[in-house]
Amino acid sequence: MRNKLIRLISLAVIIASGCKEKPPKIVFMYQTVNMGVLDSTHKITTKTFRFKNRGGHKLVIKNIASDCSCTVAKFTKDSLSQGQEGEILITVNRDQIIERGNLERRAVVESNTTPILHSLIIKMRVN
């Protein structure tokens, strides 16, 4: 009787430990985009970062901050269930960039994942 009780408790512990849901996990299709050449004829350019929630819980995008006022980020959904996909649209305005040449900007995505912050890299040539 005691052995059956021990086996039953062991089985319950194994089942309970296997039922833990995976935390949210953001997976980007790519983390770098090239905006190409920005000049007087191509002043505003937008590119898309696609991502997917590959975790077990709801993924929540809390904020996206860029390192330059020339870069604006918008996202399609602030929360995604397991397996859902989303997009982050990055728009760069050449008129707000003082420097010229090959440049790199960053946008940082804050979410409820581990790690909390994810960097997106935006490359461009400004004439």
Automatic annotation (TrEMBL):
Organism name: Mucilaginibacter ginkgonis
UniProt xrefs under Gene3D superfamilies: Immunoglobulins
InterPro entries with a match to the protein in the record: DUF1573 (IPR011467), Ig-like_fold (IPR013783)
Stated name of the protein: DUF1573 domain-containing protein
Span of the signal peptide: none
